[in-house]
Amino acid sequence: MKLNELKPGQSAMITRISLPSALKKRLEPLELRIGAEIEMIRVAPLGDPAEYRCGGSLIVLRRADARQIEVAVQKR
């Protein structure tokens, strides 16, 4: 499943990141990396961008970038 498919309040584990290396390097200090848990917080009124919580950071990603991140939904 792609990160942009998560619904608000839903959590998942990052399994693959296919972003350009420059963007990937900028996001790593924010704890956005393979194996990290990420939670969808909310989507902007027009549907783009979306806010996610990853570790202790809040990250805002465009839909096109979130589409490049694969996640596995965690069962609760």
Notes on the structure:
This protein is mainly beta and 76 residues long. Helices cover 14% and strands 38% of the residues. It has 2 helices and 5 strands; from the N terminus they run βαβββαβ.
What is the rounded distance between the termini? 17 Å
Q: What is the CA-atom radius of gyration, in angstroms?
A: 11 Å
Q: Which band does the percent of strand residues land in?
A: 35-45%
Query: How are strands sequenced across the largest beta sheet?
Result: 4-3-2-1-5
- What are the segments in which pLDDT stays under 50 over at least 5 consecutive residues? none
**Class by SSE composition:** mainly beta
Q: Residue share in helices?
A: 10-25%
Which sheet architecture does the biggest sheet show?
A: 5 strands, antiparallel
The rough form would be described as: globular
User: How are helices and strands ordered from N to C?
Assistant: EHEEEHE
Mean pLDDT: 91
How large is the count of helical segments? Answer: 2
Strand tally: 5
Summarize, please:
This protein is mainly beta. The protein is built from 2 helices and 5 strands, in the order βαβββαβ.
Q: Helices and strands in order, then pairings?
A:
Blueprint: E1 11-17, H1 21-27, E2 37-43, E3 50-54, E4 57-61, H2 63-66, E5 69-73
Antiparallel strand pairs: 1-2, 1-5, 2-3, 3-4
Index terms:
76 residues, mainly beta, five-stranded antiparallel beta sheet
